[in-house]
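Two quick folds needed for the group meeting slides. Do the first one here.
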Amino acid sequence: MKIKLRGHHLLCLLGFQGYGYSEDFVLNMTRINELRKSEDCIVSLTNEPDDICSSCPKLNDNMCENKKQNEIIVKMDDEILSQFNLEKEYNSLELFKEVSLKFNTLKSVENVCKNCKWENECLFYKKLE
């Protein structure tokens, strides 16, 4: 199976524990979080709406909320994606191991995670504190 993920969602999935913007969003995020743990899951990377965004109530005209918010999200994505080859499809298990190695300090994620709405609930971020 294949999934498409935007850059910052690589970190979100590592810290996800069932919170979200709506019930549909949480169900979809839970499903994708389970899929990414499968040996046969392939991930393509993007800085555009992905398979998680597809159930987000804030997705509006293929943008996150509005133009200003979308620019912030794309910048977060690009920071994470700068560490990866966007032309490549990744085995999900290998990709998430690599993510954990590259983003393992507060400094490495401060421009992405600092002041995130989910900062206090995110297991990934709490582990770095």
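Then this one, please, same format:
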Amino acid sequence: MKTTVIAKDLRVSVRSVERWRRAWREGGMEALRSAGPANSPTVTDTQFAVLEEELGKGPTAHGFDDQRWTLARVQTVIRRRLRVSVSVATVWRLLKQHGWSWQAPARRALERDEHAVELWKKEVWPRVKGSRRCPVPGSSSSCAVRRCDSCGGERPPPPICRSREVELRAA
């Protein structure tokens, strides 16, 4: 087949088809196998061992304010220490591939006030949670009467009601 016909059928450039034909003539079918993305930066196992050492030193050793490792922070360490530029998604895949996982705190914060949390759940949450919509269809007009058609009671205020904001701040 002509190169132009193949290029049109495969929706590629004529130059690509010419390159593939030359590779096939010189190396056969094996030469046509994909070598992977051309610009895919990789971190070798040796480099990852260096990265693990750096991560073991902790975030503060690398100039971060607290002891949290985030993907963006690990990305910064990789760029600074290994001189390899990778995306945040690649950092996640790399860490996951080497057995790392995200961590949730093993215990609750010492500063947590259980009494205040329970009080908030009992007193504030029911007022905040309130149903946002009336059980039956109503008017979308902002001038509509704020009464529920099914029960005759008042409809709850909209989520961004100024009087409700003040009430929640005071609580």
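Slide caption for protein two: Residues 114-129 form the longest helix (16 residues).
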